[in-house]
Amino acid sequence: MPKYSESKAINRIIDANINRTKEGLRVCEEIARFMLNSPKFTSGLKEIRHEIGSLVKRFPPSINLLREREILKDVGRDIYINELNRKDIPDVFYANIQRVKESIRVLEEFTKLINRNLAVRFKKARYSIYEIEKNIAKKLSALSDH
User: Which residues contact 77 (CB under 8 A, 6 or more apart)?
Assistant: First the structure.
């Protein structure tokens, strides 16, 4: 088990990436819902978002993510590289789905230190994202061709 200072850092990493994952999924879900008008993609993204929430509830009780959250001290808080540059809705989708994949990978890696079964579940969620991204990309491409 990691030392306290490592545990605190791990909890902060996990907390930030849970938030990043769920936020990115919600943005993609809204695009699937309101731009693509796709019940299939909307529900698929929603299911993954809820799965992430369900996995968070499976963390051991000793892990208190909110207790370790230090928003004002977060050195990444004021870094905006490319975050303000979006040219269209597909660009918003691709930026957010990439954020989701990266964040789930971080969750997968750091939960290996806590619970390997959770890490495996995060990996499955990541592969679900790969599949839904591929299908949504086809739909977005077809829309931009018209």
Answer: 71
Q: Which residue has the tokens 């990266």?
A: 102
Residues 11 and 67: their CA atoms lie apart, in Å, by 9
DSSP code for 113: T
Q: Which of 83, 64, 90, 52 is nearest to 8 (CA)?
A: 64
Residue 43 C-beta-side C-alpha neighbours within 13 Å: 3
CB 97 within 8 A of CB 133: yes
What tokens does 85 get? 């540059």
Alpha helices in 38-115 (DSSP H): 39-56, 65-68, 89-111
Check residue 112 and give its pLDDT. Answer: 95
Say if pTM beats, i.e. exceeds, 0.90: no
